[in-house]
Amino acid sequence: MWLGATLALSLAAVCITLWLLAAVWTNQQLLVPLRAEAGHVAEEVANGRELEPERYRWNEPHHVFANERIDPFFLQVFDSAGRLVRASENSRQLEAPYPQILLDRRNVSMPSLLERPIRFSAGSDRLYGTVVPIKSDDGETIGFVQVARFDLGQESALQKLGVGLALGYLVVLGALLSLLAAAGNRVARPLETLTRRATDISPDDLTRRIATPDDADLETVQLTSAINAALARIQRSVEEIRTFTSDAAHELQTPLAVLLGHIDVAMRRERSGEEYRTTLQTLRDEVDGMTRLVRALLGLARLDRERSALRSEPVDLSQMVGSEIARQAQLGHIEPGAIRTEFIPDAAVAGNEDLLRESIRNVIENAVKYADGKAIRAKTSRRNGNVVVTVEDGGPGIRPDEIERVRERFFRGSAAHDKPGYGLGLSLASSIVVHHGGRIDVGDSDLGGARFDILLPAA
Fold it and tell me: Could you tell me if 422 and 289 are in contact, meaning their C-beta atoms sit under 8 angstroms apart?
């Protein structure tokens, strides 16, 4: 409706402007010869401060004859009081008396584009004219020249032009509005169908998709595809959130049940100090595991929320891997001679040091957990513009059908059932590395266990 109204107003403005331009041009074409004749007469009859009409030659054909083929001028001279002092001979030859008065003193002004001729009738004759003041030498108005000619239908031509423009306006506007309505319906109908189908989709069933309307145009087809793709992403996100919430609740339920069980057992009867210490140590281990679980959950949530807001700085991966191995040895998790290292001197990458340390720590702890005292190997290298951190162990390894799933949250392989943990370490490590533009490749090691390659773009 807005477009139709704007189109109607714009088209009307064009038609009105065309008619006004035609009217101005026509009026100017009529007035130019009238002004020229009247100005010439005014110069002839003015003598100083006196008005002398007889100084002009009144016997010229176009002042004597009133035949349209001669194109006559009907000329009158008035004094400053508006009294007629002289008239051309042809003004007496018309069917009805020619007006003997100044027709319109208001028209006595400087010429302008908006000036219109004075139109009047003398019997059946239609005429148009203008009035020009007669000035003395000192600029005083001492009289007026009123000159007119036959109206040969110029005003009628303007009226016909106006009617033609009005009819053309209605026809063109009708055609344009019809095209606009057809185009609008062609777009609106598929969109209405699309909106109705999209409204029917509820949060309880995100598997539904919007079928493309049969009468859809290319843009609507593209919009439908984009909405369906967005629905697919939303469905995946919701499913991941539901799975994540369910798995987190399940993983937290077990240690909480263990805590409550040990507390209930400890409170059934008096215990010795050693028994209380044993119970407290068990409780501490469970609380420590829950703390690590919550920390991993917070780390994953932080990555999902602040992917573009984390600071970046140069990080030496060789130094970081070496310090993490030394930390494992200091904690007594590995024997100093059970691990072999091989570091390159230039292993710098750009990233968040805390997050990268968390990622490497999780991979190393995973290797230590499953090595069971067997050999562990860690090294850094360069490959295709990346710095690669390789961690291998001599443990039971990962089954081929489980390799692709080890990065999933809460996934634990068949070899992990007798090991402590929640299945979040490698998922967090992989998310951190992906956030930094890298990846973690998982495979078999020649030591007999698993091999993890952390690839990060070199700084």
Answer: yes
